Amino acid sequence: MTDDIPADRRPPDAPVALHAEHWNTKVQEDISELCQRHVTECPSIRSVAHYSNGILDFVVHVHDAEPLRGGLLVDHRIDAEGRPGHQLVRCVQDIDRSLAPLRTGELMRTVVGTPTGALYCGRVKADQHLVGITVDGDGIDAMDGQLNKLVTEMRILMNLPNEYLGGLELPYLVPDGTEGLQFLTGHTVDEPSEARLRGLWHRFVNHTDLQYLAYYRGWELICVGDAFDSPHLGLRFLAIEPDSRRRKYRDIAGGLRTDIARLRDALHSITRDPIDRLVLDVQEGAVYIHWLPGGRSGDFLLGVTLDQHQVGNAERRLREVLNELPPPSPRSRFRR
What pTM value is reported for the model? Predict the structure, then answer.
């Protein structure tokens, strides 16, 4: 792999682009230049890598980026730069296959967040991915928004439609009703705790944005509520029954142990901090997992929206629930 601009001709603060030997056509150069522009525009982005069929095509990183762990030697720099993205793309593709039974479309955007950095993976089209890295915990949202724009611009270059990664900027309104809300708790949740949780779910779970929300502690379900039976969501269930989706979301929670281990491997050269946020943005909505502050890997909220336009608002509402969550009840078992 080679830098497309010799060091003596590159502006001192320009991003560094490292290209694979096969990445040399005019169209490919246009994509690389587009990535360099977006890295320049967003200081929170450390680097962006492009993969075709899981193979690294190029990496663009800021000029003063510290080498990732494992890349201290110059000869190994490009391998180290490409390794986190390679691991993430493989994991994303497997998660995408596991989400297929939900019938909500392909996995377009994945964000794996920690307190001190994050990985982003955007699907440009089938088998073409962009992976972004930030080592700034406060810059995760900035990187996310910038790379959503970059993926969209790349799709426009290919005459592909906008898929609204991250949703639209819509008014954030008070939920206008909870008709059809189903709420279930674990066997050992006492009545006062159940009443507090039920009140919280009735305030935030709704048919507009945050349409499903489950609370897990120690990998066991404390409570779950959804608006899937609302008449406003009837068109979302023409090809799948609400109970089938409910079971699938429980399966996702049960499979998180394996996913977390693989995602931690991808993050290993960037940060050793625990994952506190995972966003799986599909063509019809998103799945969010937010871990409780200071909790264990089995302590989290799992939220869902089925409306792509509301992806941003649904996660904002989930964050509000996380901030208001009451102290946990003892270990619980699921009951209807």
Answer: 0.91
